[in-house]
Amino acid sequence: MDIGKRPGDTWQLIISRNWAAVSPAGFRMSYSDDVEGKKNADMWAKTGKDLEGNTEKDTAEHIPTYSELLKLAVENKSPLRERKVLSVFDFDDTIALTDSWIYVLKNGKEIKKLDPAQFAVYKPRPGETFDFRDFDKKLRNPRLIKQNAELLIKQLDKARRSARGTRKVTILTARRLGAPITSFFRSIGIDVYVVPLGSANPKDKADWIEKQIRKGYDTVYFMDDSPKNIRAVDNMLTRYPRVKSLTKLIR
Ligand SMILES: [Mg+2]
User: Fold this and answer.
1) What's the CA gap between 180 and 217, in Å, rounded?
2) Residue 35 within a domain
3) Is the pLDDT of residue 195 over 70?
4) More reliable by pLDDT, 73 or 159
5) What does pTM read for this prediction?
């Protein structure tokens, strides 16, 4: 179907209460209660020109109708597309607290232990390494952080209700093993995909999210209690100005 797409045009369909087609020339049509769209539509009806004085010929050979856009969107065979949303949650001290420690080693000797919140802001001194052995075991005394867990559940519900492949919800953890987290969630009736990075390097979280952006996710939510992780992800996102994002530091 010809929807008036000219060579070089990229059309974007935003599927929401406000339907809109946007071309690089800035021509915009809305088919909803969007105020600007309604003004434009009224002007078209009266004068055959839009608010900027463009005639139909100035803008496109053929203007898609609402039903044409809808049909194309449903068929998903068009240059139009909907946004793909990725929601990423850290686990420890973001979704839940557990009784686990990170041990600080120097020359192979344990010199102190940190809880995940302390670890999130810890600056290691030269020669120090970490031992994450507590994080490979069954979760000890897990307690959900209610308001964040509710956000996770809300995102999971949304993903379940939306079209396949348009929403992904992930737990992204520095832990080496995902199984203790997965089985904890199962025990409370939550089914969520867990990605264990096996690395506490903030760049690895940013890299994982960047890979998803390359796969087509153009809306990103990220929640973490580590300022280092938030900074790394924010930094990466500056390279993708078209990606809508919301990063949230849990305190
Ligand atoms: Mg954490």
Assistant:
1) 28
2) yes
3) yes
4) 159
5) 0.67
Say if 80 falls within a structural domain: no
Residue 57 is part of which domain span? 1-63
CA of 109 to the centre of ligand 1 (A): 25
Separation between Cα atoms, residue 100 and residue 113, nearest integer Å: 10
CA of 186 to the centre of ligand 1 (A): 20
Distance 162 CA to ligand 1 centre (A): 28
On whether residue 77 sits in a domain, the answer given is no
pLDDT higher than threshold 70 for residue 125: yes
Give 80-94 pLDDT, tens digit per residue: 457 899 999 999 999
Is the domain of 58 the same as that of 102?
no
Domain total in the chain: 2
- Same domain, yes or no: 10 and 58: yes
Position 158 in a domain: no
Ligand 1 geometric centre to CA of 229 (Å): 9
Distance CA 45, CA 167 (A): 38
Going from the Cα of 159 to the center of ligand 1, the distance in angstroms, rounded, reads: 23
Residue recorded with tokens 């599927």: 15
- Write the pLDDT tens digit of every residue in 146-171: 999 999 999 999 999 998 889 999 99
Residue closest to 122 by CA, chosen among 7, 196, 229, 250? 229
